[in-house]
Structures are given as C-alpha cells and as structure tokens.
Design brief:
11 strands, six-stranded parallel beta sheet, Rossmann fold, alpha/beta, binds 5,10-Methenyltetrahydrofolate, three-stranded parallel beta sheet, 291 residues
C-alpha cells in the first residue's frame, strides 16, 4: 500500500482564508479587528522565525498583530506585568507567550496569569479542564489542527481505535481529550510504554508527538492506518518527524509529511482561536463548527 499524503499546508491555507472571511463582519460590528499579542523572550532564532510567521499570517488574515520582544534577561515580575497589561487591554483578544522561556523564568506562572478567555494556545489549566469536561474552551492549536486533518480524511471518527504517542500538556493530553470527545477508543502511549508495536497494531489512528526523530516504524502500523506526525526534529538529514516516513508511507492509508503537515495547521488554528476568542469576548455570534 502507498499512503495518501495529507496536505496540511493546503488545508491550513484554506482555514486561514475561512478565518479571514469573517473579519470584515466582526470589524463592522465592533469597529476593530481581532487582535493577537505575541510575546517573545530572548532571541532563539527558531522562535524568532515562528513569531515572524505568526505576525505575517495574522496581518494577512486582516487581524491585528501586537508583538512584544523582551530581553532574554527579563525578570519574571516584568513578564508578569506585561501579561497583566495585555489581559486588561480590550483590543487584545489573544495572548501567546512563545515557549520555551529562558530557564530562569517560570512558564507555568506565566500561563496561569493569562486570562483563560484570551488563552489562544489553550495552555491554561482552566481551558484544559473545560476541554476535559466538554465545556466551551480554548483548545490547543496543534491537537485541534490534527483533529481537523483526521476528520477531513476519515469523516466520522466514532468507534475508531486511536493511539496518541506522547502525554504532554501541549499535544498528547489535549489530543487524547479531543479524540475521546469524538468517541474514539484512545490509548495514550509514552516513553515508559512497554510494547508500543502491540498497541499500534490495532490503531486506526496514530498521532505521534514524542519528540524523537523517526521513532515510529511502518512495520508497527496497522495496514491502512491514518498517521499524523506532530514531530519537528532538526537532524543532519534536515527536518524530520517522529515517524519514519518512508516505511510508514508503505503501510499507512494516509500520512502527514514533515514539513507541510501539522506545522502549518498550528498557525492557522492559532488565527482561528483568535477569531473565536474575539467573537466570544464581544458577544458577537459565530458558527465555530463551520470554521
Ligand atoms: N506558546 C507557544 N505556542 C506555540 O504554538 C508554539 C510555541 N509556543 N513555541 C514553539 C512551537 C512550535 N510551533 C510551530 C508552529 C508552526 C510550525 C510550522 O509552520 N512548520 C512548518 C515549517 C517548518 C520549518 O521549516 O521550520 C512545517 O512543518 O511545514 C512549526 C512549529 C508553534 N509553537
């Protein structure tokens, strides 16, 4: 079997257009555009590139990008004070503090300080709790992007066997919550899982978010499985995912490439979440399920 390649880049471009199409009506209703504030601490080159791309795409969607660059040596109090100001600013609908932070800063403290209604990353424990409880939440961008690709590929996910590899707060845990809400039977595997191939052999859906280059081998997969590769690993061979693409593509029914798969979806969903946050905050109705 030779897998269909899931074009995350094209899906993300469509999603960004759908988001952009709702901005003019919001502006007419409220007299302003949705605003996304991005905070970058230090000058990690990879982070700087991401932040620049986010700003570009935010503006291309007709939304306001508010960028704050802080010195790598900034103190926690100063970062906290910036978050407080962004929380209080009515023109800011979304706040994203780029992670990881330099080691002297406490990311959990910053995340807890962000107004959950402006938490477009969906990292605040209130949003994790809302998601787990089936309440309206801000949903983390990467797992929501993966879910959109899965539903586009498979339609109804009800009853499917899904294995999520990785248990982070950013991807694995919210991914498992989303798939559970869609009535999948979900297994969460991780670094201590003893027999990963055993679980993968039954999986209709595999989401790999372990952070180890080319970790998942095609021979472990159920023939025809749908494979979503969240990994972004910079190696000598260039950018590779958490899945060994060539062997997986000969076993899977469909697979996301790296690059061009999940990555572009993360940014597109960030814009979607900003649009959603803006509408909720202003009480402007929006059919969220159509975006
Ligand atoms: N608070 C916070 N929220 C984030 O969402 C967040 C973060 N911090 N810190 C860093 C990670 C990383 N991240 C990516 C976004 C887009 C691509 C992306 O567009 N990748 C492209 C290009 C990859 C490349 O060439 O580098 C692709 O996979 O095709 C990748 C990674 C968001 N992150």
């Amino acid at each position: 079997m030779s897998a269909r390649i899931i074009d995350g880049k094209a899906f993300a471009a469509d999603l960004r257009e759908r988001v952009a199409s709702h901005v003019p009506a919001f502006r007419e209703r409220t007299g302003r555009s949705p605003g996304l504030a991005v905070v970058l601490v230090g000058e990690d080159p990879a982070s700087a590139v991401y932040v620049r791309n986010k700003g570009k795409m935010t503006r291309a969607a007709g939304m306001e990008s508010i960028e704050h660059r802080l010195d790598a040596k900034v103190e926690q109090d100063e970062l906290n004070a910036l978050v407080d100001r962004l929380n209080a600013d009515p023109t800011v609908d979304g706040i994203l503090v780029q992670l990881p932070l330099p080691p002297h800063l406490d990311a959990d403290e910053v995340i807890l300080r962000i107004d959950p209604d402006k938490d477009v990353d969906g990292f605040h424990p209130v949003n994790a709790g809302r998601l787990a409880s089936g309440l309206p939440a801000m949903v983390p961008c990467t797992p929501l992007g993966c879910l959109m690709l899965l539903e586009d590929e498979l339609g109804d996910l009800s009853g499917k066997d899904a294995v999520v590899i990785g248990r982070s707060n950013i991807v694995g845990k919210p991914m498992a919550a989303l798939l559970t809400a869609k009535s999948c039977t979900v297994t969460v595997a991780h670094s201590r899982t003893r027999n990963l191939p055993h679980y993968l052999k039954h999986a209709d859906i595999v989401v790999a978010a372990v952070g180890r280059p080319q970790f998942v081998h095609g021979e472990w997969l159920k023939p025809g499985a749908t494979v979503i590769d969240v990994g972004i690993n910079r190696t000598e061979d260039g950018l590779v995912g958490d899945v060994d693409f060539d062997s997986a593509a000969s076993m899977a029914g469909a697979i996301t490439p790296v690059p061009g798969g999940v990555g572009p979806m993360t940014i597109a969903v960030l814009l979607r979440n900003t649009l959603v946050a803006a509408h909720r905050r202003e009480g402007v109705p929006l059919d969220e399920s159509a975006i």
